[in-house]
Please model this.
Amino acid sequence: MTEDQSGSGRKIKSIECFFDGCTEPVNPGGYAGYGCVVLMDGKRIWEHSGFIDKDPGTSNNLAEYSGFLALLEFLIKNRLNRKSVMFFGDSKLVLYQMFLDPSIGRPWKMNGGRYFKTAMKAKELLKKFPKSKCEWIPREENSLADELSKAELLKRGVVFKIQPE
Model:
């Protein structure tokens, strides 16, 4: 994939990325799914979902970070990291640890946790995105990624107790 994806010489105007994670039937310690979607100039060019098996270390934060990390890896692989990229998610933890919390003007601290290794990998890759920004959105506005994250659990027969299907 290149800047001129259509062969028309047209420049990319916007890249919007959505991510989400879901852990069920308990958090932490349940099964987790994550989903992410990339829109280029309003058109879906890529979507991905993944599954994390049940483990005491599995948490919703790990699932959210796994979706965010998958986005970063896709964008780098396709040389889209030098473009203006807007990340959307309903996880304030991920967005405000990776970027800034607008209310305090600095990123949130990372004190460890079940997601720490994945977060540190994402933080390192994010350095390759000089023009990136983020925006927190409510779950209702994150349906593209939310559906993908839940689909991974549904196809494995996981019973939902925390979030609605």
About this structure: Confidence is low (pLDDT under 50) at residues 1-8. Residues 97 and 111 are 10 Å apart (CA to CA). The helical segments are 60-77, 92-98, 116-126, 143-154. The chain is about 30% helix and 25% strand.
